[in-house]
Design brief:
This protein is α+β, with helices and mostly antiparallel strands. The protein contains three helices and three strands. Strands 1-2-3 form a three-stranded antiparallel β-sheet, with no helix packed on it. Strand 1 and strand 2 form a beta hairpin. This is Sigma-54-binding protein. InterPro entries: P-loop_NTPase, Sigma_54_int, Sigma_54_int_dom_ATP-bd_1. GO terms for molecular function: ATP binding; DNA binding. Keywords: ATP-binding, DNA-binding, Nucleotide-binding, Transcription, Transcription regulation.
């Protein structure tokens, strides 16, 4: 993961995106407006901390990309595992996840 400037805007790239069989194939996140830049700063502050993070949003808004960014910036040695919570029954969610 690296941070570059592209057209004067911060660009977070994932050079190894093609190597992972679990990759969602996105290669970059672009943080242009002030709100998304604040989000990037918050992600970078959260990454090294041992805290659970819940990312919510509409389908297709980049929640998994944000989660991957947080995971890569952490000291966690395990693989990143993405879970579609919409596919889990509310009745069994606790048992499935914890």
């Amino acid at each position: 993961m690296s941070l570059h400037e592209n057209f004067g805007q911060p660009l977070l790239t994932f050079p190894d995106a093609e190597k992972s069989p679990l990759s969602i194939r996105a290669k970059a996140l672009v943080f242009i407006d002030p709100r998304s830049r604040r989000l990037r700063e918050e992600m970078e502050q959260l990454a090294p901390r041992e805290l659970p993070v819940l990312i919510r949003g509409e389908s297709g808004t980049g929640k998994e990309l944000l989660a991957r960014h947080i995971h890569r910036g952490s000291d966690r040695s395990g693989l990143f595992v993405s879970v579609n919570c919409g596919a889990i029954s509310p009745t069994y969610a606790d048992a499935e996840l914890f």
